[in-house]
């Protein structure tokens, strides 16, 4: 038995709300030293042999953070769109013991900086789609509009997630090759990829909800019944005329 438009619209809303929550958690990770934001980060590396750097460093959207004794982020003042650029004045301001892959290139700086505007744009479309999703539960046009908005959100979310994966995986490998143990932040990556999957499912549910009720020829069920009623009236009239002439 197929799902109704209301059910599909509700499922679209559910997956959209889940994706927005996960995106917000990743976006705000490192902005404050409070749970759960103090356990979300993109990359952790041992940087104790770099002059002026903390023993262990973690990169977030907002700041380079040190690590407390209980394994939580210890971040200072927040700076939106904090770049992943270890030798720059924003981070360590030195090239001593910094992996050579980071020196003399803007690749890591530019890739990490583009993540922030893309995630903001995607989040903007996702939030609008969340509100229009209320219409998707009762109208076809609401389902298609919400599906289009969620598709836009999905596009920017996937771009952000791919940029994040590329730049921080390369950064992890660079630190490891330099003898500085590094690993990715599991929560941030899990949140971002799961949010992408939820956006895809939301887009699918909205579009399916918009398609519910379409009949052959593009007529709704009510229109089909009306056409069927008049067709039966015409056929009865034709039969009556034949009997009269007979």
Structural summary, described in words:
With 246 residues, the protein is α+β, with helices and mostly antiparallel strands. The protein has helices at residues 5-28, 107-136, 140-177, 186-211, 221-245, and strands at residues 43-46, 56-59, 64-67, 73-74, 182-184. A five-stranded antiparallel sheet has the order 4-3-2-1-5, with helices on one face. The radius of gyration is 27 Å and the shape is elongated. Mean pLDDT is 88; it is low at 216-220.
Distance between the termini: 48 Å
Report the strand count: 5
Output the CATH topology of the largest domain: Butyryl-CoA Dehydrogenase, subunit A, domain 3
Which series of helices and strands comes N to C?
HEEEEHHEHH
The overall average pLDDT, rounded, is 88
Per CATH, the architecture of the largest domain is Up-down Bundle
The residue ranges in which pLDDT falls below 50 over 5 or more consecutive positions are 216-220
* Total tally of structural domains: 2
The chain-level structural class is: alpha+beta
Question: Taking strands numbered 1, 2, ... along the chain, how are they ordered across the largest sheet?
Answer: 4-3-2-1-5
Tally of DSSP helical segments: 5
Structural shape? elongated
Strand content bin: 5-15%
């Amino acid at each position: 038995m197929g799902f109704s438009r209301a059910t599909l619209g509700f499922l679209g809303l559910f997956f959209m709300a889940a994706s927005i929550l996960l995106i917000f958690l990743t976006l705000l990770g490192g902005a404050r030293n409070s749970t759960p934001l103090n356990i979300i980060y993109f990359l952790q590396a041992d940087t104790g042999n770099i002059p002026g750097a903390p023993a262990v460093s973690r990169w977030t959207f907002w700041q380079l953070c040190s690590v407390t004794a209980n394994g939580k982020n210890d971040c200072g003042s927040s700076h939106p769109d904090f770049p992943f650029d270890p030798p720059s004045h924003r981070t360590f301001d030195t090239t001593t013991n910094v992996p050579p892959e980071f020196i003399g290139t803007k690749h890591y700086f530019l890739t990490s900086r583009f993540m922030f505007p893309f995630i903001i744009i995607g989040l903007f479309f996702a939030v609008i789609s969340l509100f229009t999703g209320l219409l998707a539960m009762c109208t076809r046009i609401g389902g298609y509009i919400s599906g289009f908005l969620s598709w836009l959100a999905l596009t920017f979310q996937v771009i952000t997630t791919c940029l994040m994966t590329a730049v921080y995986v390369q950064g992890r490998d660079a630190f490891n090759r330099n003898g500085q143990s590094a690993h990715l932040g599991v929560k941030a990556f899990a949140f971002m990829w799961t949010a992408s999957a939820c956006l895809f499912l939301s887009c699918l549910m909205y579009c399916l909800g918009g398609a519910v009720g379409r009949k052959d020829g593009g007529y709704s069920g009510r229109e089909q019944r009306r056409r069927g009623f008049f067709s039966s009236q015409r056929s009865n009239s034709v039969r009556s005329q034949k009997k009269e002439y007979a």
